[in-house]
Amino acid sequence: MMNFLRKLFKTFFSKTFIIFCIIGVLNTLVHLGVYNAVINIPGFTQELLVVSGNTLAFIVASIFSYWANATFTYRQKVGKVSFFLSALTFVARLVLSDILIWIFNWIIMKEGWDFMLPWAPIPATMILIPLQFLVFNRIFKAHSIQTNTQE
Fold it and tell me: Considering its fold, how many domains does the chain have in total?
């Protein structure tokens, strides 16, 4: 158990994770910008705008996240294999994100906290970022090993 805790501590208190988090903050700002632009479009139901806004924001932010993490966190060139694997990760994360956004939106609307609606993606992001970091570590480290053995 101690070894697991040491490994967990080493993983989440590393330079790589700090860079990943900085990119995550920038990514969240991109996401919030697109999300808030979409949820303020008049003439549509709030439920439709929240899910479609989150989906579009998620796609834009995911492309930025892939590029920034490949370039700055893992110091690798953008490649087809890592992009494909990252895209699969983003699809799974999108489904989880939309479910969480819907839940947070429901809570916000039920409690009458409409002023919190623009910030609904933040708790979902806080839940999903550590999971994505672990998956990206596997994708980029495996891709790095494959690239090094092919040279």
Answer: 1
